TrEMBL record:
Family membership noted in the UniProt record: Belongs to the AHA1 family.
Protein name: Activator of Hsp90 ATPase AHSA1-like N-terminal domain-containing protein
UniProt biased composition (Low complexity): 177-206
Protein source organism: [Candida] arabinofermentans NRRL YB-2248
PANTHER family in the cross-refs: HEAT SHOCK PROTEIN 90 HSP90 CO-CHAPERONE AHA-1, LD43819P
GO biological process: protein folding
Molecular functions per Gene Ontology: ATPase activator activity; protein-folding chaperone binding
């Protein structure tokens, strides 16, 4: 890529999605994990799907990376059982400890799925998390040089200094931030722990109320109409605001049934991730009410019978979605 950009002043961007595909193939397909006995093992075999946007940008001497990706990885066990690991969001502003991983087995009836799932969570996912945390830095290092003019050709001391600072900061290794009162999840704590019909431990919890600068009618439509749901999930949504009808989100990673609708007030669903056991659903309830200001609507979201191991995934996904809806109307999430 040839750049004609006096003093590195003007905005330049570079599409790097093809590079990202090669990067993940080279850096992830060599990862393996094994039990302490060595009798069971799992290895990453290929990148099944990479969708989204990846760009390196420069203006006024500053290099930045912007990316928002969905990654699907194939794996295989020592017994030749196959499956996939879905990472629903890899974004430029995501902390390494916030990455979420959804594990799916092609053969849902295998008796050793639980063993391999534990192995993946304990030994393979930490490796994936470390590799993903370096993506932004490696992206800048590999793809940023050809959208910058060399500093010895920059006559502006201001942009030359910005360029040097930008390169230096991008070469620093990302650090996993500890949760503080400023960056903790806004969700309430889990309210109870029980066992589901499948015998798995489940939890019930709710998110803190969210206030939106819009009417109940508009927010209700945003939560139930396919054209709006597609916007805040950032994927095609197969859903209709009709009771007892199925829905599918994120290419089938999330499915369920709308069980109850009370226009402008209530939405209830049976909701599941694709890697959960057959017929295992959580109960999702969304209640809408008027705020103290006539132009505000308050949304309360609660969950029942969520598998304990996946509470963080469900909670994080809905927090991200609510944050996205916020920008449609404004308000406090």
């Amino acid at each position: 890529m040839v750049v004609v950009n006096a003093n590195n002043w003007h905005w330049v961007d570079k599409n790097c999605i093809d590079w990202a595909q090669t990067y993940f193939s080279n850096n992830l397909t060599s990862l393996t994990a094994a039990t302490t006995t060595g009798n069971e093992s799992v290895k990453i075999t290929s990148i099944d799907k990479l969708k989204g946007d990846v760009e390196v940008c420069q203006r006024k001497g500053k290099l930045i990376s912007l990316f928002d990706l969905v990654l699907n990885i194939n794996f295989e066990t020592d017994e030749k059982e196959k499956g996939s690991i879905n990472v629903p969001e890899i974004a430029y502003d995501t902390e390494p400890d916030e990455y979420q991983f959804q594990i799916n087995f092609n053969n849902q009836s295998s008796t050793k799925n639980d063993l391999y799932r534990s192995l993946i969570k304990e030994k393979l996912i930490p490796q994936l998390r470390e590799k993903l945390s370096m993506f932004g830095t490696d992206l800048i290092t590999s793809q940023g040089s050809d959208i910058l003019i060399d500093n010895d050709q920059v006559t502006s001391k201001y942009t030359a200094e910005l360029t040097s600072q930008s390169i230096k900061s991008q070469n620093q290794k990302p650090v996993v931030k500890s949760k503080t009162t400023l960056n903790k999840s806004s969700s309430s704590t889990t309210t109870s722990t029980t066992k589901s019909k499948t015998g798995d431990k489940t939890t019930s919890f709710k998110l803190n109320p969210s206030t939106f600068q819009t009417t109940q009618e508009q927010l209700f439509d945003t939560l139930t109409q396919p054209q709006y749901v597609s916007m805040w999930t950032r994927s095609k949504a197969e859903i209709q605001p009709v009771e007892n009808t199925p829905f599918k989100l994120l290419d089938g990673l999330i499915t369920g049934t709308i069980t109850k609708l009370k226009p402008v007030e209530t939405v209830e669903m049976n909701w599941r991730l694709s890697n959960w056991k057959e017929n295992q659903y959580l109960k999702l309830k969304m209640n809408l009410s008027k705020g103290s200001d006539g132009g505000e609507t308050i949304l309360n979201v609660s969950f029942e019978d969520c598998p304990s191991d996946d509470e963080g995934i469900v909670r994080g996904r809905w927090e991200d979605w609510l944050f996205g809806i916020r920008f449609s109307f404004g308000g406090i999430v």
